[in-house]
Amino acid sequence: MTKSPDIAAPPPGWITVARKEIADHLHSARMLVVAGLLTVTGVAAVYAAGGRIRDVASAATDDPALFLKLFTISIENTPFAFVNFVALIGPLLGIAFGFDAVSSERSQRTLPRLLAQPIHRDDIVNGKFVAGLAVIGILLTALMALVAAVGIIRLGIVPRPDQVARLLVYLAVSCVYIGVWLAFALMLSILLHRAATAALTGIGAWLVLSLLAGLIVQMVAGVFTTPGTIENAEMQQALGRLSPAFLYEEVTAALLTPELRTLGVILPEQAFRAVPSQLPLGQSLLLVWPQLAALVALTAVIFALAYVAFLRQEVRL
Amino acid sequence: MDDSVTRPAGPAEAARPGVTTVLDAADLDVIRIDRLTKRYGDVTAVDRLDLRVRRGEVFGLLGPNGAGKTTTILTLLGLIEPTSGSVRVLGLNPVTQAIKVKQQVGYVPDSVGFYPTMTGRENLRYTARLNGLRHAEDRIADALDQVGLADAADRRAGAYSRGMLQRLGIADALVKNPSVMILDEPTIAIDPEGVQLVLSLIRRLRDERGMTVLLSSHLLYQVQEVCDRVGIFVRGRLVAAGSVRELSERLAQGRTVTEIQVGGDVDAAARRVAELDEVQQVDREGDLLVAVCTADVRARIAETLIGAGHPLLHLRQRSSHLDEIYHRYFHDEIT
What we know:
The complex is a heterodimer.
Chain A: H1 13-27, H2 29-59, H3 66-72, H4 82-96, H5 103-107, H6 111-115, H7 121-155, H8 161-191, H9 195-224, H10 230-240, H11 244-256, H12 268-271, H13 281-312
Helix pairs in contact in A: 1-7, 2-3, 2-4, 2-7, 4-8, 4-9, 7-8, 7-13, 8-9, 8-11, 8-13, 9-10, 11-13
Chain B: H1 2-6, H2 9-15, H3 22-28, E1 29-40, E2 43-54, E3 58-62, H4 69-76, E4 84-89, H5 98-104, E5 105-108, H6 120-130, H7 137-146, H8 162-174, E6 180-184, H9 192-209, E7 212-217, H10 220-223, E8 229-234, E9 237-242, H11 244-252, E10 256-262, H12 266-275, E11 279-285, E12 288-293, H13 298-307, E13 312-318, H14 322-334
């Protein structure tokens, strides 16, 4: 009976790994950079939107979704609202907290030692993913709380329960979306041995899928259909949905714009004489349920790929 | 705990026909490798390896780089699955019971690394947590003390020298209080003083804690003094195993080599020595005469030389170095 008294129901390995990784992230320089970046964008978005929201508020005196406008109204003369900032910077966050997750263990030569501890091999990947997601979740929650707080103080509007629920769902979906990128970065850190290569690949994919996707989709759709027709618009939408960025944009729109009734192509005659009204949260969610499912599935698939790659990989590589 | 260690070995052995008294021997063999083969595509890294490491001994797995030493070690930890053959560590199968094996086996990898921004102590604390040890501060302090890093414990590991990292690696493996230690190239890339520290540490682990130690190295000189037994490993195959003395005797085939140093006319002295019946050959190596003899004739050589008036300054029977042994086996293997 060699069991020591101090072994008492130890926590699973992934929790230990996640705790250490979270502590590392919180103390790291990249955390400072990312937090700084987020603070600046958050404050900029809310201050800039603050000016315009008064105009909106005076135009639609009893707009029930006024508080949500704080997040969706773009800064004057730019296409950037708070949600656009998150959509743009979110993937970068995922990449920042994942691109060197496993390759740094290799370059510091700590991986063989880590694998020789009595934990399952997948505990390492799981722990790192959970840690990354937790830190991102904390940052994003803090950022939204900051924006909401500044909005409440500056504009004097108080959110209603329905709007709070919408914002919480939006927060959760944003975490899932960033999770896609975190899983992707984690996979790169396993497959590519140099952190710099992984970071570049991740940023490249991010550029293609979120910034250039619209352009590419337009080009491809233009080849097969005549621009300006319904077919063209529908094809653009179908192709665009291949990119997680586009899916996320649709979800965001449905969640934070309660007036939005459909994501499909609408002709002016179809909208003619439609009574402007707002959907309840449940109906908005129903609208983007396929997109939500796709985002969750995509995270799961990419994470599974990373996972399998890690389990099959040679220890000494 | 002990029951569960020996039980898996029991039925497996009983199932083998014609083997009845193997249980006692199995208890002594902490590591048993039978016909282990590992192939990567066309390359055979380990080829039908048989190896036994007994309880409480320091076993040196020696061979040139790329001989398959690390592959063998990683197989013992369940980090590489064998293509064929069986591996048992403390009676456990590392492929199916990896966690149990890793609870009891301390492993210090080849040029071990630590998280540079954490202190030595923090690094060990992480290892202790991964091992499910909650209140391990005393154990960590003890391990650091054992390897002589108590003073440097709260410095960042990034500032450690290679030799310190190696010792921290040993402390790291000690935290879980293992019954077996596996060290991959423990003396590589550290200065001679560091090598001596590491070697004396290995000796202490065996003598004071009764630990079984398996170490691999290609620097035979450095490790020969701590190894109770060694195995010479070349191109995935174990070409010889035994204590250093056994190997050298087997290699010498009854011949001995004697070093002689005389003052005065060295050539005349060489001729005198060569005239003896048991002396096959006399060579000069600088100041030394080196006589290859069929038996130990040191007394006769001394008598002869002093009788002939040569001042005898030095007389010593050379024991075969592991280096010689290794070169010999290595060359046999290549040609």
